[in-house]
UniProtKB/TrEMBL annotation:
Positions of the Cadherin domain: 15-102
Origin organism lineage: Eukaryota, Metazoa, Spiralia, Lophotrochozoa, Platyhelminthes
Superkingdom, taxonomy of origin: Eukaryota
Keywords of this entry: Calcium, Membrane, Repeat, Transmembrane, Transmembrane helix
One Pfam family recorded for the sequence: Cadherin
Record gene name: ScP55
Tagged with keyword Hydrolase: no
Cellular localization per UniProt: Membrane
Listed name of the protein: Schistosomula protein
PANTHER family: FAT ATYPICAL CADHERIN-RELATED (PTHR24026), PROTOCADHERIN FAT 4 (PTHR24026:SF126)
Length: 246
């Protein structure tokens, strides 16, 4: 910010600038000679968006001058000092500098799915993802998606964050998921945890499937804002846990 003022006082004069030495005036500084106002620290709109302070322009005359050169007497007189005041209002504009912040679900949260429960039905809500972005405008708008397209099994509403199965999960579909070797599935038998690679093997399906009493599918939810020129994102990983024997 810059203010140009001209002193028209009698004799030599100059303008100096000062900021009030309190409140918001402490956050800024002014060049005493040209009136340029600068920041003393970084401003963050999410912390505070508006600042208000006063700046003073002072007609700084400290010399004695002649009243008249034609006067037979040399008369000296100190000029008066005049001050002008202006109120400065600073509005901090938003930039897309904050990624979405998840509220739900919790990272690593498990959603247990019992055999024959309504959660296995197509379209039934498994959970609802919710994230907020402290920016404003388009920078604050959040859209949801699933990593790897939900493996073709799970869908999420991009606006509401509601997550659900694309199709009804039946025994045959679970067997297909395990055998496909395409999903980050972890299984547990009555004795120990089975490695992801092992659970996807034909050996497990043919010889050890009867031992399996639960397995989980890791699912990553992505929350992305609509900021320009670039968007920011955040993610949460949860587990869908089936407690059933195949």
């Amino acid at each position: 910010l810059q203010r140009n003022n001209h002193g028209n006082s009698l004799g030599a004069s100059s303008i100096t600038y000062q900021l009030e030495n309190e409140g918001d005036g402490m956050i800024f500084s002014v060049n005493a000679r040209n009136g340029d106002i600068r920041l003393n620290k970084h401003l963050d709109r999410e912390v505070r968006a508006h600042y208000e302070f006063r700046v003073f322009a002072i007609d700084d005359t400290s010399k004695s001058v002649k009243i008249s050169q034609n006067s037979p007497y040399l008369v000296n007189k100190w000029q008066h000092q005049y001050t002008a005041t202006a109120t400065i209002i600073i509005t901090v504009l938003d930039v897309n500098d904050n990624p979405p912040i998840f509220e739900t679900p919790l990272n690593g949260q498990e959603f247990h799915i019992e055999p024959g429960s309504s959660m296995t039905t197509a379209g039934t809500t498994l959970f609802t993802a919710k994230a907020h972005d402290p920016d404003i405008g388009d920078n604050s708008l959040v859209r949801y998606s699933l990593d790897n397209n939900g493996y073709g099994l799970v869908e999420i509403d991009s606006t509401t964050g509601v997550c659900y199965f694309r199709e009804t999960v039946q025994h045959s579909l679970l067997t297909k998921l395990i055998a496909s070797n395409q999903y980050p599935i972890h299984g547990r038998t009555t004795n120990h945890l089975i490695d992801t690679n092992l659970i996807s093997s034909d050996n497990l399906i043919t010889n050890r499937a009867h031992e399996l009493h639960s397995f989980s599918l890791s699912l990553t939810i992505i929350a992305r804002d609509l900021g320009k020129p670039y968007s920011l994102n955040n993610s949460r990983t949860v587990k869908l846990v089936w407690t059933t024997e195949l």
